[in-house]
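One record is given unchanged without comment:
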Amino acid sequence: MAKRTQWIPHFSTGNTALDEQHQQLLAQCNTLANFLGEETGTANEQFAGTLES
């Protein structure tokens, strides 16, 4: 199982726009990690779509 990381204040740069981007990127990484254990066609399609975004 892939590890997931939650945003914590320690990660903050103090720049609101940059912090929001980092939080979105972290959420996408966690979503991709959720698909790693699944071997269905739907999971593969969702993985590809999430990775593309």
User: Anything to note?
Assistant: The chain has a mean pLDDT of 86. The CA atoms of residues 32 and 46 lie 9 Å apart. The two ends are 23 Å apart (CA to CA).
